[in-house]
């Protein structure tokens, strides 16, 4: 243990031992010590991953501002993409590390939030009213930062905090300290963002926090927590959002495993695991999955805009990831990347930052979200042993709550209403009627990557799918079907470029009589062209599952919308022929419509909340697309049209 001993001896005297990282991965009986040189990169693609013997190559500290690589919005604080170019890697037993780390209290002064409670509450109110209420998305995470000053040498304090985490925390995905010379990150993240090993891509959406004491009373409280509709819906929404990401990095999308209960010393979380096979470069996987919906919101592109509109400062490393890149015994690329939450950042001058966020959904209250940020900040400080009179972490429950039969049953029950398509992975073409095989579909993305999931479903029905953004839809005449997809925004806007472009695309498709399916925002725009003006719902339908009457058949489907078209009859006469409507009997909301050569649905058949989604798509496409004719297909013409 010569390297670690020398490193700690230097740190104890206030010296700089050079860049290093100490990492304990979930369940490991050892820590990994990485040493090397620290450099910076502009892009994730610039992170080095050279060939050579198996092992880790690079440990990257990926800040939130890196979302600009994807063209997403942020408050750009200029925090760099630093990485440790690993020169030496060794394993050290947990007991040895605990014996070597300093066992001393850590003191802080001048602690306080950078945003006051009143200011944060006002921001929550604005997001609920102006963003979720106006159809900009289903959920958004708004952060604030507790700031303080560490008393004494910062690195010695961070090492003492790491010891406390290793001794008392459990269930963390990574427990770590990274020292670059310009900053220290120390924490215990419960959540894997993304990993790649042996070609298997995995993500780990977590939502819901249950605070336990280790007492028997926790069992009853936990069962109430597992049955809480708000907690259930929040997990479903982040599951949908990470399935969108998996749709871009795994060849057939992600298969859902779980849910599980992740137990830590003071907290328990509900989580799913997503897995799928992929062949992308791991740096591209990292880029395409920036960043987790549990720390941003959904849909992702607009969530970043909302965060930029309402947060006063940049996020630095909060919501970013640590990313360990390497190669396995066969020379294949590997990636392991936890989310940077439950993490403190300490500067060489002793400035301490503990960022925390609250997930805002349609059920949220300003008072509740303010309280949640206080509880999260206090929990991080307590776990790290930071601050005066920080409580010691307890041993946790004597018996794992996840082993209780009723808890297991409550978790399993969460899958009962979900779409089996995502729980049972399928092969392309396995679910489609023979007449759809080989037909070509163009999906036009309205800034909601639900379209990636929709592409996998259409592929499973046998179609050959092309996906393009709304601003580059291009020619549509080479496709047998055009799907005008979902996205955030006000469908009644006369000035928003995206709305105008998608409305114009639909008008052209109707005029040509080209087979068209419109989903969510696309459906609202289609309804408007048919004479049904969209209305804002009194209460948003964000992450809501309903059973509806769909043209005489009962279907259970998932909604993500704040607007809807309404009608007072089941049939509508339009310039494009008669249109049949599937309406809500209570308020006339149009759940779906169909006419000659076109159809629209307000819900998301691709969502995990739509167990009948595949049946709905098969039925609608069967009416829109005549059976494939090889002769006309080869000529690039839509079947049945001269």
From TrEMBL:
PANTHER family, per database record: AMINOBENZOATE/ANTHRANILATE SYNTHASE, ANTHRANILATE SYNTHASE COMPONENT 1
Name this protein carries in UniProt: anthranilate synthase
Limits of the Glutamine amidotransferase domain: 442-619
Lineage, highest ranks first: Bacteria, Bacillati, Actinomycetota, Actinomycetes, Micromonosporales
Catalytic activity, EC: 4.1.3.27
GO molecular function: anthranilate synthase activity
GO biological process, one term: L-tryptophan biosynthetic process
Catalytic activity: chorismate + L-glutamine = anthranilate + pyruvate + L-glutamate + H(+)
Pfam families: Chorismate_bind, GATase
PROSITE patterns recorded: GATASE_TYPE_1
Chorismate-utilising enzyme C-terminal domain span: 118-376
Superkingdom of source: Bacteria
Keyword field: Glutamine amidotransferase, Lyase
CDD domains the record matches: GATase1_Anthranilate_Synthase
Record InterPro entries: ADC_synthase (IPR005801), Anth_synth_I-like (IPR019999), Chorismate_C (IPR015890), Class_I_gatase-like (IPR029062), GATASE (IPR017926), TrpG/PapA_dom (IPR006221)
């Amino acid at each position: 243990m010569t390297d670690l001993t020398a490193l700690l001896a230097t740190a104890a005297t206030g010296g700089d031992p050079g860049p290093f990282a100490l990492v304990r991965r979930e369940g490991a009986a050892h820590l990994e010590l990485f040493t090397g040189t620290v450099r910076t990169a502009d892009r994730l693609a610039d992170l080095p991953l050279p060939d050579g013997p198996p092992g880790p190559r690079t440990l990257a500290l990926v800040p939130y501002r890196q979302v600009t690589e994807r063209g997403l919005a942020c408050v750009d604080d200029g925090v760099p993409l630093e990485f440790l170019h690993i020169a030496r890697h060794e394993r050290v037993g947990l007991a040895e590390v605990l014996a070597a780390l300093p066992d001393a209290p850590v003191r802080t002064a001048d602690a306080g939030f950078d945003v006051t409670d009143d200011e944060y509450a006002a921001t929550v109110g604005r997001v609920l009213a102006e963003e979720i209420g106006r159809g900009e998305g289903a959920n958004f995470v708004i952060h604030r930062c507790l700031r303080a000053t560490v008393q004494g040498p910062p690195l010695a304090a961070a090492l003492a905090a790491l010891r406390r985490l290793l001794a008392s925390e459990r269930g963390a995905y990574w427990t770590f300290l990274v020292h670059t010379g310009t900053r220290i990150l120390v924490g215990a993240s419960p959540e894997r963002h993304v990993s790649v090993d042996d070609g298997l891509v995995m993500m780990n959406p977590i939502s819901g926090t249950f605070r336990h004491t280790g007492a028997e009373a926790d069992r009853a409280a936990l069962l109430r927590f597992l049955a809480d509709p708000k907690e259930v819906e929040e997990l479903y929404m982040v599951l949908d959002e990470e399935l969108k990401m998996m749709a871009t990095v795994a060849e057939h999308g992600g298969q859902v495993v779980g849910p599980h209960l992740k137990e830590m010393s003071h907290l328990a979380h509900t989580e799913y695991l997503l897995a799928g096979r992929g062949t992308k470069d791991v740096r591209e996987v990292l880029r395409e999955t920036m960043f987790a919906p549990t720390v941003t919101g959904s849909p992702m592109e607009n969530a970043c805009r909302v965060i930029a509109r309402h947060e006063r400062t940049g996020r630095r490393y909060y919501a970013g990831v640590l990313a360990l890149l390497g190669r396995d015994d066969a020379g294949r690329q590997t990636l392991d990347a936890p989310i940077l939450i439950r993490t403190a950042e300490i500067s060489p001058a002793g400035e301490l930052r503990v960022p925390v966020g609250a997930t805002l959904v349609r059920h949220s209250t300003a008072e509740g979200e303010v309280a949640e940020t206080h509880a999260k900040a206090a929990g991080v400080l307590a776990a790290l042993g930071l601050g005066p009179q920080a409580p010691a972490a307890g041993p946790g429950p004597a018996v794992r709550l996840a082993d209780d039969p009723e808890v297991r049953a409550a978790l399993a029950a969460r899958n009962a209403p979900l779409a089996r398509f995502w729980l049972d992975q399928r092969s392309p073409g396995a679910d489609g009627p023979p007449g759809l095989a080989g037909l070509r579909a163009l999906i036009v993305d309205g800034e909601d990557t639900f379209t990636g999931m929709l592409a996998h479903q259409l592929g499973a029905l046998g179609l050959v799918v092309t996906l393009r953004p709304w601003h580059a839809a291009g020619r549509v005449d080479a496709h047998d079907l055009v799907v005008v997809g979902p996205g955030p925004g006000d469908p009644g806007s006369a000035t928003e470029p995206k709305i105008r472009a998608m409305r114009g695309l639909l008008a052209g498709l109707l005029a040509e009589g080209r087979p068209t399916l419109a989903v969510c925002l696309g459906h609202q725009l289609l309804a408007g062209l048919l004479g049904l003006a969209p209305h804002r719902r009194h209460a948003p339908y964000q992450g809501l599952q309903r059973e509806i009457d769909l043209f005489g058949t009962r279907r259970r489907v998932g909604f993500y919308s704040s607007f809807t078209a309404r009608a007072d009859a089941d049939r509508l006469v339009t310039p494009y022929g008669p249109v049949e409507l599937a309406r809500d009997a209570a308020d006339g909301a149009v759940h779906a419509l169909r006419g000659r050569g076109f159809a629209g649905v307000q819900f998301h058949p691709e969502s995990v909340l739509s167990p009948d989604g595949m049946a709905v798509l098969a039925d609608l496409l069967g009416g829109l697309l005549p059976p494939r004719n090889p002769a006309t297909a080869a000529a690039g013409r839509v079947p049945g049209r001269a």
